[in-house]
Amino acid sequence: MKKLTTTLAALAVPVLLAGPMALSSSAADHTELMSTLGELNDSGGSGTVWAKVTGNEVWLSMEVSGLLDGAPHAQHIHIGGTNSCPDPMMEGTGADGAIRTTDAVGSYGGVAVSLTTEGGMTGPDHALDVANFPAMGTYTYERTFEVSDEVAAQIAAGDGVVVVHGTDHNGSGAYDGDQESDLDPSLPSEATDPALCGALDVAPMEAPSGGVQTGGGSTQGMEQGGLIAGGALLAAVGAGSLLVRRRAQD
Questions:
Q1: CA-based R_g, the chain, Å
Q2: Cβ(152)–Cβ(58) under 8 Å?
Q3: 125-148 per-position pLDDT tens digit
């Protein structure tokens, strides 16, 4: 009976040690990023972005304010170029030196993900799906979507740049003007000129807790999960010890 007690005690210690280690490794299996959106083309807008990459799944939450209300704002994650935003003071090819989308491709690269509001239309080929983008000047956007392994790795490495389009250069309250868009000649340039830009960098802090409800954004609760699992392990070992004592008494 003494030998049985010693054997169970030896098995119990590795279980207690392995439990927290396994939980810790699963908690670190993602990358969280954030960005502050700076205005381009004197858009008057501002915004903040949080993102979380887990495997090839990306959760993204964005708060935007100050843009033209009642008009669609195409929004994307760009990858390429120098993975950065252009200088807001750069001279563009638009009216009065406005920055057009293609003027800054050398900075933020091409569209990798279209941040549409619903459906599976999130690839580069839906970059101008104007009916499926926010159409308010102030809005909150949140969505989880799947990307290729390559795009996921690039975003997690900090190579993604979020760009929100749509500016009202002449203050008319609508997208208009004589210049055509450099992306779609059927649209005025105001509809596609960049309004906000921000590079996604690895976050020094956890994203808002709202991300937890959609599968991303924060590790809050992971610690509690570890405590619960640890408690279960302790309870199991305690039950084993109790069983040994009872058998010893028998």
A1: 26
A2: yes
A3: 999 998 999 999 999 999 999 999
**Token duo for residue 181:** 């868009």
> Which range has the worst mean pLDDT, 45-54, 60-69, 116-125, 211-220?
211-220
**What is the C-alpha to C-alpha distance for residues 170 and 184, in angstroms, rounded to an integer?**
20
Go through the domains of the chain in sequence order and give each one's CATH number. 31-213 (2.60.40)
Instruction: Tell me which H or E stretch contains 198.
Output: strand 194-199
Q: Which two tokens stand for residue 22?
A: 């396994």
Taken in order 203, 205, 208, 214, the sign of the CA dihedral is positive
User: In this structure, what DSSP letter does residue 209 have?
Assistant: T
182 touches 18 (CB < 8 A): no
Written as six digits, the tokens of 194 are 């960049």
Q: What's at 77, amino acid-wise?
A: I
The length of the chain is: 250
pTM of structure: 0.73
